[in-house]
Amino acid sequence: MKHRFHPAAEAEHLEQVAWFEQQRAGLGRRYLESVEEAIARACAAPQRHRVALIPDVRRVIVNGLPFAVLFRESDGVVQIVAVPHYRRRPGYWLGRLAGTPARSPRR
Predict the structure, then answer these.
(1) Residue 33: which of 7, 77, 67 has the closest Cα?
(2) What's the start-to-end Cα distance of the chain, in Å?
(3) What is the 3-state secondary structure (H, E, C) of the chain?
(4) Are 86 and 97 in contact (CB under 8 A)?
């Protein structure tokens, strides 16, 4: 399955790559490869991943880093909505879901 980034999600993702690379050479590449691997898992089996926000936003963990990839599948395409850090600015990306009533799943 193919994927595409929401424009704001792509911008934040590329900013993270640059920030990590600035911290230490090679760290940006590690972040990029880890996120790409998480996206590949999302594309391989979108319905397998946990619902992060009802009705259709799912989450796949980025292995080895405190990030997740939030996505939704529509018409055979995985749309990356955000690549948030676990502990920073929760819910900042909700405005990217225009026109979709969303709520957190019950735990």
Answers:
(1) 67
(2) 29
(3) CEEEECHHHHHHHHHHHHHHHHHCCCHHHHHHHHHHHHHHHHHHCHHHCEEEEECCEEEEECCCCCEEEEEEEECCEEEEEECCECCCCCCCCHHHHCCCCCECCCC
(4) no
In percent, how much of the chain has pLDDT > 70? 92
The answer as to whether 75 is a domain residue is: yes
Tokens linked to 5: 């980034």
Q: In this structure, what token pair is assigned to residue 42?
A: 């999302």
Domain that holds residue 9: 2-87
pTM: 0.85
pLDDT at 102 over 60: no
The CATH number of whichever domain residue 48 belongs to comes to 3.30.2310.20
Using CA atoms, how far apart are residues 105 and 67, in angstroms rounded to an integer? 19
